[in-house]
Amino acid sequence: MSETLTTLEPVCAEPLAAPGPPDLPQLKLTRRHALTTSVWAKVLLVLAIPVFSCVLAFFLVGSQIFQRYADPLWVRASDQIYTARNVHCEIVLFGDSTAITGIDPKIIEAATHLRTCNLAQTKGVLAVLGTSGLDMYLRNNPRPQILLIQFAGQDFYHPSSWRDTGAYMEGVVPMLRFYPRRQFMNALLHHPEIYMGMMHFAYLTGPMNLLRNRLRRQVPQHSAEVPIDVHLVMPQPAFKSCKGVEDIDPMFHAPDATFIRELREHYGALAGNVVLDAAPDSACDPRLDFLENTLVGLDNRVRPYPAQLFNEGYEHYTAQGAARLSASIARQLEPLAAAAQQKPAQSETVAVREPNQPHRHKP
């Protein structure tokens, strides 16, 4: 029996195919995804820079270091109205920049023998926060025997918008530092221009003021132990005539008799005597006759001062103009001061509205 041998042929595996190019649609998808990711990363980076700059600006402006070294001199000095505690000012002077540049409390104190403090604020602060700074001071300090409020004639009105003044950042800065955070956040929602204004203040105005203050060595030290004084004469030279004189605030508003009455009623309960004055106006102001005829309910009349007593617009006084105005106010207050000295002093603080409810203006 013969056996049949079966020849087993080896089974060879099929050769491996050489690697070819990847699938073209998949490659396009990968490249497109990488490109999209790169574009979005650049977009986010571009958006992150201004957002980070804006957030940093808020922290810078709100810091004590910035406040001490980079604020404009008059803004830094006017912060005292928010920080003063238990300061006994027998005469309190309040108002706009006409009171900052025009009323020297030392002259009034020498004439009346009553401790005098100048708490005036700029028009930008008043447009944003109203007279709530004065309310805050009266709540935290003893009741003054005399309160004098002086505004430029056209500032006795209720502004309806921050855009009534271009200097609104002067009011936003103290709002950030001294007022409830909810009020500041509400302002951000309704006034988006604050973002750009804050960055400009932090990165341009602030460093320029820092350099200017350091060169002039102007870093004033304020203390609750000395009279509060924001009197500041601008460095510009005096005008020689009306030629070339222009108003620093061209937005003009007619005086509001209702606002004047509300001021007197509100602060009449918070001080021994309330005096409401209109600041002397430049004889160059073409609106002078209108102001003289429309301002009613004040304790004085608008008086024309020669152009040589001003160095900026119709309302910012030279040192000579401030001396003349301060002497005039001192004579006006002397009878009230004499009567006040015969009465027992009232040292208690007074109850006033919260600072987040400004009395004068509505933002």
List keywords for this structure.
four-stranded parallel sheet, 8 strands, elongated, 8% strand, alpha/beta, disordered C terminus, 363 residues, two-stranded parallel sheet
Number of strand elements: 8
Strand order of the largest sheet: 2-1-3-4
Poorly predicted ranges? 219-226, 354-363
Q: How would you sum up the major sheet? A: 4 strands, parallel
Determine the mean pLDDT: 79
Give the helix proportion (percent range): 40-55%
Percent strand: 5-15%
Query: Could you state the oligomeric state of the chains shown?
Result: single chain
Globally, the shape reads elongated
Structural class: alpha/beta
What's the end-to-end separation, in Å? Answer: 120 Å
Number of domains: 1
The value of Rg in angstroms is: 33 Å
Question: Can you walk through the features of this model?
Answer:
The protein has 363 residues and is an alpha/beta fold. It has one domain (46-341). It is built from 14 helices and eight strands. The chain has helices at 24-62, 64-69, 73-78, 80-83, 97-102, 105-112, 123-129, 132-140, 169-178, 181-190, 193-216, 257-268, 288-294, 319-341, and strands spanning 91-95, 116-118, 146-151, 273-278, 281-282, 304-305, 310-312, 316-317. A four-stranded parallel β-sheet has the order 2-1-3-4, with helices on both faces. It has a two-stranded parallel sheet with strand order 5-6. Strand 7 (310-312) and strand 8 form a beta hairpin. Helix 1 (24-62) crosses helix 11 (193-216) and helix 7 (123-129) crosses helix 9. It starts with 23 loop residues before the first helix and ends in a 22-residue tail after the last helix. Residues 219-226 and 354-363 have low confidence and may be disordered.
